[in-house]
């Protein structure tokens, strides 16, 4: 604040007519007296901003009309008191912006009156009566929601701070805001002092109200954390995540920036939570940019905040829906309010990337501040350029050495194929036990799905909107994902602590050639004595109607094991090339634990042919999977939904290839989207797979060679170097007197 | 033809400059020399027509480029020879239009060359090798497809008839067309002489080629059928439908018009087949209008053809998808090519209804003839008016006395609620055993679904694209629908012949008041000694967020029975107000026959409360059902998919209220769509039901009275007269010393 005041004074020397408005200290968070002036002056030139303003006025005016409700806290998420307090903080923040931009005092009056009611209520509150969180809140059932409240409400308070009587300010500071800030920090160190999205909210809440109140102690606490928190390394939160990250002794907002993201902006919990976590990062970041230019927050750690926004936007399907990596409710997308903030702030404080404007147009919303205004102005000027997601490999871990996520993605004339390959670290309490799993998308959505979380966020009827028991017992388990489960046990035995201690190793990644994109990673720790090595190849060639995905899953073990490779195909099974026996009159689960207890075993088969093929149909498209198998492999169809006493799970199908009694083995499969059909035309186009066969030619610790052939006789050979990923290394191999020579970790050759 | 020639000559006296083109006899079916002249002259003024023309040229030119393929018939639907011959007839018909409109001879050459190949092939053909139809074809596996071929190809032939050398015409007539026409008629009377959509295609095919060839015998055969067909009354087709309709001795196209539709245009098989059947009706109708004005075909039977188009368009959900009454593949809609013809011909030959133009705009396609041209011109002039489906009750049966279908439908500011109440006749071979069933839609689609057919039309992998075994064993059965099944047996014991012999009785229908729409019907024959009486009330009131559906299902029987009322709710079960036990580790079917063998029994419960309530979620909406039950009722959750060896069925949920050991009984339920939720906002709006209770106050053979109450205390009472539907009748009733007096079959009163 001191800094912004100084700048104001410098300006006022030159523009003395503006002296009156510049003499204010507030607002200082999202808005400044100066930015408010600018917005007011050019309001007519930014229709998208005008639209947002008009809609916000409409929304807030209805609330003002209805009156102020500050009920005594009682309910869980979804219940009345929860939803009411949540609505209050959303409306208060908006009312603050409206007061600044329109100058209409009724908004200030509304904020003041509601804050005074909160100041009445707050001192009377003990812990929330639900008392079921590792950090129970006061206004809400958990401190996290109290911190949300404060992040929003500090903005409202900021907007009316200079308008209030000094004694009102003093009263609110003393009775409501400072006690709440202390409650969220010193009184709940296990909540405040983590490296976790919960703590980011806490840090931002405490820091933002500190800036408004010019309370340097709070700002310091927010930036650098509590010095002595006394938290044990064994303490966990409600999701089973550990409070402390081994080896990390720092806390506070800057430590969040240091440890929450990988160097390229990947967030270990995945994009669903990155989206949620971004808002306090961006808002407190923006507040610091206004008040503490000494920190140069948007340049901090090589511009990590802006990199994180980039990474967030890129981890989306063609509709802008986030890949449901780890715990994630499907359907969340870049249309969310948090990403509106991300796009606007990244546009303004980043390089004014015109691709961001096309997302802003889809959002059709902007922040009511200078960043949103800049976006709206640029959209009006026609500067928007279509946003394109790119193939990329992200590293995970603050040091960038804890695995990663590889996105293979290729566009065609009218579509795309995108494989999301997960070899990241565990993802803390929200992590799933799915090392080396993948999911597959076309431009319409999922082809091979990741289940996401077993949760209906905020829907009271489903466990109060919280994670459901089946999230732990099914959605997090290995078999619920498209990766190998050994001996019907989940990776790391389903133990978060073990999961957090290890991470896969990226082997190589190459998306330089749009026609052949390839990612490869290994895991040595998910099972003791078992090495997993998966390579995914996205191939686009004129010989195929659409791009295909080649999946090579190699396993080394000194002991015999059972290997299950599930493929959670999305859609209705049309056909197989093998016989199977369907459970006609009785269904039982596939197993008893590690998620197996939640899958009905619908059919089993086997084949004397060397390839198992299934074809399914979804959303007007066909897709086939062709996999090299032996006649001893069990080919199993399952469906989720067993042992689900309250109908919490979706009933989705999967195909499981089960191989028993092998030590080293390899699964090679080709996923091939093809053709289309719609019920209006009723004419199937290319309903059949064009893959004739996949054949393993050679497989040892050093090299894997396989062929695949199309029904029209075209044939490809693929060779992989399994222990040397050097792109300049030369490889030679002779198999059945045929010679293979190549450079680098792989080659693909059309014969 | 003689007539059109006469008219041409009259015209030519006045417009002698046009003499050359008017001296032609052909084309005479969809196009005439005159209409071609008009189209050519105004081509620039009808962009939609120009678009269609351009796309057709593109499509046909690709085919001409690829060459002519007339393979020896071999495959079922979905296989190569089937799909190739099908493509041929579509392309030939288009090429004919292009030759006429563009004058480019390459189209004529293409048609001629392909027809000559067919003339080579045809005489060599015996019956199609599949030999699995009640009327096996030659080019295709069934005569039906051969008739499709001829309906399309006769148009192509018509367009080049005058361009061909006379000896080519003679050759084609003698070697291909007349033999095919005979094959489809005199050689297959069981196919040609039915009252059935198959025969309509046959009649149209024979009639249209007869008009082209000026073969009066064929035209007569088409119009009036074969005189002596020698078909037994016991003969059935592949779908189990009877060839002969009891009492009907007439056949041919005019008999189809007499017997296929009810007086208001309802088609007993349902809209999916009406759509399919309409094309030959419309095309042969249009051809007759051009050639046989003496018949005045569009005025025939009070304009039955145009009424049928009206009825077809009105039996759609908000997306224009046909209600899947009886056998129907879901997703078929007014965008289909048959409805393009329906809309264009109805617009041109009907009253130029501007609402039809808005559908034409959605179709974005028109026929390449004068009707399509007129539509495109009118669209260009901006004459389109939004199409609105209306509530209506259709009668079924040629005499209008065989039951019917009632559509209750009310619109709100941003949506609608629509109940489709089925009390129609059986629907021949495609009929389902679902007397008094209903399905429910909002503006987004199904809320309570009709399963539709178990079939993947033309998808070879699923039974060659034909009806699957589960269509008979599940989709047609009573329990697969939203109506009562008694003693686990389907209506009419699942016997088509019994089903065809009876039909429900409409009791009353009133949609005059948009806020209270009500339909009521009875059935006396589905079960011996059991009377079923259902009344559906669609109610829109300011007291409810959205319209609700009240369902009153009354049953009289002198014997004790088990009554099952299934509700096939679409979506994910969120909550119930009663306890249930879920089958956790083992699933078994609900029963052994009549469709019960295909439903897994997932959970059963009961309640001491007098109401059972379930809430489900789908497509961002909540919906609740509240039903008056006793503590003896079993409350069962099932899911389709049991005994399904090849994964032919969808796995959809249903809620079944089971009442045992009662004679007379009544089920009263309220279906209440409410609220919304989307995964981007994550804020549930109105996720809870507002219905507190439903209570039966009185129920005997004469009267039914019940109350229902909202959670806010508002209360309604409803009274129904069960045996007197006279709208002027006065009713008096005293229950618990409370007096009820009203006029007409029902009253609804807010207390």
Task: Write a brief caption for the model.
Helix content of chain A is 32%, strand content 24%. With 751 residues, the first copy, chain A, is α+β, with helices and mostly antiparallel strands. Chain A has three domains: 1-260, Glycosyltransferase (Alpha/alpha barrel), CATH 1.50.10; 261-389, Chondroitin AC/alginate lyase (Glycosyltransferase); 392-750, Distorted Sandwich (Beta-galactosidase, Chain A, domain 5), CATH 2.70.98.
Task: Explain how this protein is built.
The structure is a homodimer of 751-residue chains. Chain A is α+β, with helices and mostly antiparallel strands. Chain A has three domains: 1-260, Glycosyltransferase; 261-389, Chondroitin AC/alginate lyase (Glycosyltransferase, Alpha/alpha barrel); 392-750, Beta-galactosidase, Chain A, domain 5 (Distorted Sandwich). In chain A, α5 runs parallel beside α7, α7 packs antiparallel against α8 (166-184) and α16 (354-363) crosses α17 (370-380). Chain A is elongated, with a radius of gyration of 28 Å. The relative contact order of chain A is 0.07. At the A-B interface, β12 and β14 of A face β12 and β14 of B.
Layout of secondary structure:
2 copies of one chain form a homodimer.
Chain A lengths: L1 H13 L4 H4 L10 H9 L5 H20 L13 H23 L2 H17 L21 H18 L5 H19 L4 H4 L4 H17 L2 H9 L28 H7 L11 H21 L8 H15 L22 H13 L4 H10 L6 H11 L11 E4 L7 E9 L4 E9 L12 E6 L2 E4 L20 H7 L9 E2 L9 H6 L3 E6 L5 E12 L2 E10 L8 E10 L3 E7 L4 E5 L2 E4 L16 E8 L4 E8 L2 E8 L5 E7 L12 E10 L2 E12 L14 E9 L3 E8 L4 E7 L8 E6 L2 E6 L2 E5 L1
Antiparallel strand pairs in A: 1-2, 2-3, 3-4, 4-5, 6-11, 7-8, 8-9, 9-10, 10-19, 11-18, 12-15, 13-14, 14-17, 15-16, 16-19, 17-18, 20-21, 21-22, 22-25, 23-24
Helix pairs in contact in A: 4-5, 5-6, 5-7, 6-7, 6-8, 7-8, 7-10, 8-10, 10-11, 10-13, 13-14, 13-15, 14-15, 15-16, 15-17, 16-17
